[in-house]
Fold:
Amino acid sequence: MQTKSIVRKERHQDAQSHELHQAAVAQGMSTVFERFEAQQPQCGTCRKGLSCQLCSDGPCRISAKAPLGVCGASGDVIVARNLLQLAVIGTAANTYQCRNLANTLKAIGEGISPLKIRDEGKLQRMCQGLGWDHTRPVSELAVQFADFMLSEIGKQGNEPMTLMDLFAVDKRKEVWKEKGLYAGSPSAEVLTALTKCMTNISNDPIDLMNTALRLGLANEYVGLWGITVIQDILLGTPELVKGATNIGCLDPETANIISNGHQPVFAGHIMEKAAGKDFQAAAKKAGAKGIKLYGSLCEGQQLMNVSGQGHYKEIFGGQLGNWIQEELFIATGLVDLFLMDLNCSVPTLKDYADKYGTKLISTDPVVRFTGVEAIDFNPEKADEQAERMLNMALDRFKVRKADSGRLVNIPSTAVSTECIAGYTTETVLTMFGNNINTYIDEMKKGNIKGAVAVAGCTTVRHDQGGKSIQRLTLELIQRDIMVIGAGCASSTHQNLCMSTKDMAKKAGKKLRSVCERYDVPPIVSYGSCTDVGKILDTVAALAWTIGCDTSQLPVAASVPEYMEQKAIADIFTALAFGLLTHVSPAPMISGSPLVVRYLTEDMVNVTGGRMLLQDDPVRAADDIEAHIMANRKVIGFDA
Ligand code: XCC
Structure:
């Protein structure tokens, strides 16, 4: 494999990605890193959030010479409106995924889909929690629960979300009511927020930011909550599992399918079909050792969390990595079929697929590529669609094996490493003797100083590429602060062998002793970025038990390598929960000192939360630790 040094090594935290990156560039391809470089220098005005392209009199760029847009909008309004638009997109995307899942659950309940409900108990518990008779047939419950979620998504007017009414911490609800943040459904909030983004409507930057906080709540109490709950019902609730990660998981001798995105239900069904006798025999006949389905990005996290269950374990080949690496997966030349079901499916995947002989398919109506076949997942046709995918993968495998001129790049450093996944509030508590008070006692004693959710994407800005996630996480555990990972941050932890019990050796003395006593790693992975909903479950459970507000807990959130819009929606969710929320790189807001001050300082007086903008991971850890120490005093842990 090509080794001439044409790519700077520090761009990837693992050697195999670096090697593949070099090979791809040498073979005429570009990656996110080259394209980022080609975009430099980026516009300083836009970078500050000070540009507007909404109307035909624009584009307007705010400067000392022109402090107002043509319509009269100030830089503050433009910055706030731009940020609000990102939160709208993120909330819509999470809600869209929730709606897809509810429709699938409904189809199963109505008996028109061959898919199965894997965790009936969870469905029954949810129905019980909603005050329904949960002893009725599961199919009836499935339809009722799906209809309930669909109506939660669609409620209009000022009708509050039932899920927020029922499950939010009382003290939080008081805050939200008092501050005008008691949000309605995602449909209602998205409609209102987008209307406020129109030219010459909302000219109050603080109102625009509060609108984003309301979106954050709609994002949590329908979008994220619905995704995690329905996915557990359909695929099985995560259990602790040892999984394989890294590009080195790809086996040259199997027919290889990658499922990329955030919607794992179809991939779960493909794995079940693949494990059947017919497809196993077909694989042998095609000359393959078997069929493997690999996870990529957040979808890999979700699939790995359930990969110990049922037939998944025979077919699941591992979790490959984060979004910055996805082109590199294809550049191995070992991928027969690549399925894209939501973000993040980068546009250049088509070029990679053409170059390295991979069949690319989009499986959701929102994912569209010119020249790429679309087979949109339909729960009613799940059997025939899964079979079609498997036949395609086997056909491509045969072509790959027969094609001696094909480009294949297997890094000399290729390795598959081990990690532990499948953590949830329940599995963490199981480690602590099924008693949340045991965990809280360790917190009180200072053995666990606090907990931080390190979640979200990876970014190429400042050459981060996972580096900040790694550095911040190490800093936190060394300070006896437990880390909960989700999203591409978790993929980074896993690729760097940080999601293992061995990491206790790198933790501070006190945290290490807790980890060894309870057999728990200092960094626990909750899964996908949509599993931020589960992290907030844990936060709420701690607040309920301690009897404090979520804003008073010794916890914080961090998105050390923020990249896209769902992260912005989730950041506003965390801020609405009153959490200190570290974000790097900073969103494009520096052009408005007013917006920056509101988000980083004044919001404390509204929700108790605030944004911490800090690109240096060590200094971020300092500030997060100081916040945790201050909150420990507030709730009497360090009296
Ligand atoms: Fe995309 Fe979720 Fe972000 Fe990774 S973490 S870069 S969204 S895949 Ni959400």
In short: The longest strand covers residues 255-260. The pocket of FE(4)-NI(1)-S(4) cluster is lined by residues 262, 297-298, 322-323, 343-344, 456-457, 487-488, 529, 563-564, 566 (CB under 6 Å). Residues 599 and 611 are 6 Å apart (CA to CA).
